[in-house]
Amino acid sequence: MYVAPSILSADFGRLDEEIKAICEGGCDLVHVDVMDGHFVPNLTIGPVVVSAVAKAATKPLDIHLMVQNNTFFVDLFAPLKPKFISFHIEEEKHPHRLIQKIRSYGISPALTLNPHTPPEAIEFLLDEIDMVLLMSVNPGFGGQQFIPSVLEKAKRLRAMIDAREAKVLIEVDGGVNGLNVRDLDEAGVDIVVAGNYVFGSEDYAHAIASLKV
Ligand code: DX5
Ligand code: ZN
Questions:
Q1: What distance in Å separates the CA atoms of residue 154 and residue 182, rounded to the nearest whole number?
Q2: DSSP 3-state assignment of 208?
Q3: How many C-beta atoms surround the C-beta of residue 106 within 10 A?
Q4: N or C of the chain: less Cβ packing under 10 Å?
């Protein structure tokens, strides 16, 4: 299992130190939650802060857009060269076009699904993307409770990916901890995002290691 700590739960007054601690603590990606106050009822960070995150990080960035105007934000964050940019399928009329735009920047395109969105919604985009991010909470806030139906969804999605012989990773985001990570692994998940579980712990390296099942 790959681990992507969400910096939403970090201490933003000591952001540089916090990012270095997760990178030295063995994380695989640094998960960055971008919220615009419209698609979700919360507002986070823009390119000024994310460029400071990119400078401090020694691991690739995984940018999770929770915004209305996806194309605008893709253009804004592309110069920071993240590994992944994911956008919500519920908020995009022309996902195919946006996927191509992200790919043209040399960035891996990823699609995000809210807890209620079936995996079939993206079936005909699976050949175009590198990752699917399944939300296991309602997007907007850290520290919420894991929604267990994501396990069934991950299994269905894994079967769809395998049937198409596509090379697509599955990432799960929200309420992940040392207890549910095994079920996620069995459901075919490749990457877990964890905010509170990592940044709320005494020892980040230990928390990250406990998710690597
Ligand atoms: C929620 C964000 C998550 C969040 C996860 O909208 O996308 O990345 O920070 O936090 P935890 O792991 O605390 O649920
Ligand atoms: Zn996220």
A1: 13
A2: helix
A3: 8
A4: C
Q: Does ipTM top 0.90? A: yes
The predicted pLDDT at position 43 comes to 98
Looking from the CA of 62 toward its CB, the CA atoms found within 13 Å total 28
- Residues in contact with ligand 1 (CB, 6 Å cut-off): 6, 8-9, 31, 33, 64, 137, 139-144, 173-176, 193-197
- 127 C-alpha vs ligand 2 centroid, how far in Å? 23
- As assigned by CATH, the class of the 2-211 domain is alpha beta
Ramachandran class of 21: left when φ > 0, alpha when ψ lies in -120 to 50, beta otherwise: alpha
At 59, give phi and psi (nearest 5°): -120, 155
Catalytic pick among 28, 75, 173, 185: 173
User: 173 falls in which pLDDT band (50, 70, 90)?
Assistant: very high
Helices (H) then strands (E): counts for the chain: 8, 8
Q: What tens digit of pLDDT does each residue of 152-169 get? A: 999 999 999 999 999 999
Q: Where are the domains of the chain?
A: 2-211
Residue written as token pair 């209305």: 68
149 CA from centroid of ligand 1 (Å): 17
Q: Is 42 helix (H, G, I), strand (E, B) or coil?
A: coil
Query: Cα–Cα distance between 68 and 176 in angstroms, integer?
Result: 26
Q: What is the pTM of this model?
A: 0.98
Place of tokens 């929770």: 66
